[in-house]
Amino acid sequence: LSYYPNQIARFTFIGKMKETLMRTIDTIYVNGRFVQPHGTELAPLFNPTTEKQIGTVRLGNEQDVDDAVSAAKAAFPSLSQSSKAERIAMLHSLHEAVSARAADLTEAMREEYGAPASFIGFSVPHAATAFLHMAETLENYQFRRRIGHAEVEMRPAGVAAAITPWNSNYGFICSKLATAIAAGATMVIKPSEMSAIQTQLITECLHTAGLPDGVFNIVNGYGHVVGAALSAHRDIAKISFTGSTATGRAIFQAASMTMKRVTLELGGKSPNIILDDADLDLVIPQVLAAGLANSGQACIAGTRILAPQSRLDEIQQRLADAVSALKVGDAKDPAVSIGPMVSQKQWDRVQSHIHLGQEEGAQLVVGGEGRPEGLDRGWFVRPTVFSGVNNDMRIAREEIFGPVLCVIPYRDEAHAVEIANDTVYGLQAYVFSADINRAKRVAEQIEAGRVVINGAPHEPLAPFGGFKQSGMGREFGTYGLESFLEPRAVLS
Ligand code: NAD
User: Domain Aldehyde dehydrogenase spans what residues (predicted)?
Assistant: First the structure.
């Protein structure tokens, strides 16, 4: 196992089974050192492609949170007073450190998520370049500005906490840490407990960048223990959270007691709007790429496909053909585009929604309950397309987090916009049209933080975040940086 050559961390291989190496991750990272947590509880780690346990992680507790917050608090005065140039140098060191182990991260992501190549190909480079994007943002940012007779200074908000979801665990560790450092804020990170192998690797990478002790600290643990302790901690001034809307609500509530600043990046049910002039040869692959990103386990997955009534049959047929042709299986095979669900729990959730869709009266165009043919182990589901979906159905309203697409017919542009906006979410939306001006006209009416026209590529400096219950605040670029800053106006 070439990717764990570690001198630093304490992976202990406790046994070798046929194809699975069991390992124990029994350290957290506090004040520049790998230390054993005070917490003693162990959580199992699984490979979703095989359903086999591949290790255990020892989880931190409230005492570990206190230690990590103290370390971050002690490191804050120095980081907050450091120069732009010093922080840019730190960001470049972090970029180099993370880039150096891209191959190991790829391997770990496959093992822990069964993530398909398309998702890994985006996530791994993006994690490392997050540091460069923040360095660029910082370079161009003015921390002082004059407004009338006031001098306004943007100050780091204080000690920050990051809480990350399983599906982009180390990507969000990188982007949130990059933003905190650019702002001059120290950080305690609570990664997803389901991604401890990736967390361990990224921690090793970040450690080699040689930042001052305490600037960042990483505490594994359950959300209701470590995450809750951070959300309520009196010395944490700012929380940057990515995860489900339900958890975001709990964090927001806990954070309100001490008026923490919060950025909440939450769930979605993104509309994927095909206008009636779209060239389906070009569009169908992009609609599926958006709808089935990371096997549908993505906050931005465009799972509500809005199709014009006039071309409904044609679109449904094309989708059915394309989805039937997708290969499901072990992501080690480059031809595979749909991997497993991350856990048994997630597999059950997707199954129950496929069942529910039929009960609600939607028709299965392709897919359905159960496992794909030939895959008798691994948390694989059948990529599923429902037709005859009404936007009031639960399958159209709830985030399923799996490869389940709902085709919803619309009459005209205004009706498409109405359906697209008829949701509690508003994270991302997709519009496809042969006429860019028409697509832009529709995009301007969509209640979402991002609208992607005709499969345009990601823009890492543009704001990212949700309208409505998809969140609060924005990440990336200047908007992200300012979410870690507090303006102070001095009038003279
Ligand atoms: P989750 O909400 O279950 O967990 C996210 C994190 O919160 C984990 O680290 C978890 O341990 C922690 N947590 C759980 N309970 C907590 C509590 N009471 N207090 C503090 N922390 C707590 O989400 P998940 O299943 O890991 O990730 C999937 C969800 O994340 C989906 O809803 C998806 O849409 C969302 N997501 C959003 C974005 C975005 O940018 N908007 C990106 C990726 C994922």
Answer: 36-490
| pLDDT of the residue at 118 | 87
What pLDDT score was predicted for residue 2?
28
Q: How far apart are CA 306 and CA 459, in angstroms?
A: 24
The residue to mutate among 244, 344, 483, having the most atoms of ligand 1 within 8 angstroms of its beta carbon, is: 244
- Residue of 107, 111, 265, 482 marked catalytic: 265
Q: pLDDT by residue (tens digit) across 175-203?
A: 999 999 999 999 999 999 999 999 999 99
Strand partners, 187: 160, 216
Distance CA 85, CA 20 (A): 45
Instruction: Give the pocket of ligand 1 (CB within 6 Å).
Output: 163-168, 190, 192-193, 222-224, 227-228, 231, 242-244, 247, 250-251, 265-268, 299, 399, 401, 427, 466, 471
Residue 280 confidence class, pLDDT cut points 50, 70, 90: very high
* Strand ranges (E), 309-368: 363-368
Q: Which helix (H) or strand (E) holds 66?
A: helix 62-81
Q: What is the pLDDT of residue 177?
A: 98
ipTM over 0.95: yes
Residue 163 identity (one-letter amino acid): I
Is residue 265 annotated as a catalytic residue, yes or no?
A: yes
Residue 23's SS3 state is: strand
The residue assigned the tokens 């799972």 is: 303
pLDDT in tens, 22-78: 889 999 999 999 999 999 999 999 999 999 999 999 999 999 999 999 999 999 999
CB 137 within 8 A of CB 478: yes
**Predicted local distance difference test score (pLDDT) of residue 482:** 98
- Which has the higher per-residue pLDDT, 221 or 120? 221
DSSP element (H, E) containing 394: helix 394-397
In the sheet that holds 428-432, the strands lie side by side as 363-368, 382-387, 404-410, 304-308, 271-274, 428-432, 450-453
Atom of ligand 1 nearest to the CA of 470: 41
> What is the Cα–Cα distance from 287 to 273, expressed in whole angstroms?
9
Q: How far apart are CA 452 and CA 166, in angstroms?
A: 24
Give, using CA atoms, the residue closest to atom 26 of ligand 1.
165
